[in-house]
Amino acid sequence: MPETIPRQKMPEQPPDKRRTNFNEVPLGFSPETAQREASRCIQCKKPTCVQGCPVRIDIPGFIKEIRDGNYLKAFEVLKRTNSLPAVCGRVCPQETQCEQLCILGKKGEPVAIGALERFAADCERVQSPLPPSDPPPSNGIRVAIIGSGPAGLTAAGELRKLGYEVTIFEALHSPGGVLVYGIPEFRLPKEIVHYEIRALENMGVTIILNRVIGISETVDDLLDQGYRAVFIGSGAGLPLFLNIPGENLLGVYTANEYLTRVNLMKAYRFPEYDTPVIRGRNVAVFGGGNVAMDAARTALRLGADNVYIVYRRSMKEMPARVEEVRHAEEEGIMFKILTNPVRFIGDDAGRLIAVECLHMELGEPDASGRRSPVPIKGSEFTIGIDLAVVAIGNAPNPLVQRTAAGLETSKKGTIAADETTMKTTKRGVFAGGDVVSGAATVILAMGAGRKAALAMHDYLQTGVW
Description:
The protein is globular. A hairpin with a 5-residue loop joins strand 10 and strand 11. It is built from 17 helices and 16 strands. The termini are far apart. It is α/β, with parallel strands linked by helices and 465 residues long.
């Protein structure tokens, strides 16, 4: 019986080895292991797991194909609703979405849906690398996508399937958005992202790089140029700061800059790429999310002797994925919880040499439902560091919004959009992903991109706004 088969564990690089390289940590299922894990799925008639997926993958359908050894068919099932399965199989928080609703999880461990998704996508990439595409015939209607992150790529793929002529405008020199500038190689290899993007281009999607909408042209300009609808998926790339003394010292980075230098600008491939980045020996990363884990584990791989995660709440409140925290602990990252920085300390040359912190205790829950950290008076102490990375969140860059007349935004700078259709307050303009929700997950951005594409199709076919 499926329920008697234990959940299969994915092999990983051992911690002492992986902390010295940027190769991917999980190594993937073998076909035998994948089929064994797929056989655990009881093929529910009313699969609750699907309801937990923002892009509504036919989860039992693709798992059944893996169970039966039809790996490419499994990929075809995935691709019907998911434009980036190899990405999602690696970075989606399945444990709080589809797997959380798996029936098997009520009495035991849920099916490893994410690992199986990765397996099917990887099989397709190895066995059938980008066959000649037969893109749908064009309906002659042009649409513009701003941003080539997960929301924009998903919207582009769905719209191209429906026959639209899709052009993506990307501000950076490489497509992929946060998938390439934010997530490290050891968690999401760049070649995986590039492969998924090439598949979209193979369908007929056009990507224009180094084009900053809001400077080179505006949303109104795009509409005037003949694009019948615009989707804004420009993400949340504006870093938040601690706003404490010393934050401008040499050696203090935001996670955005630090990870962009290492990932997109390939500092991790030194000396092949001589991208300047400070390689600290004693590093503190401030924050408790996945970005903080990424920055800390990156610093370790760049040669740090000691890396600290400094987080003002307890481990229980930490928003990072359990797997990411486990990987960080296994690799030797030290967690200084219930700790908050109050000032950075520099030497006479303006270089960071330490951070002063306070011990905290947990008070009453705040608006997020987590208990609020309260400073303990007189508990100041210092940590000697030569590199600090601030990873406490991001907000949308305001460039697009400021230059689009009639586009309503919130106090936090996010674009106001209908939750179901992703329509904004400006006719013909849709938005989704982090630019609407604030910094969230890849799969939620993809779900928004898919909803927007379907609503754009309805608008373009009916003219009804």
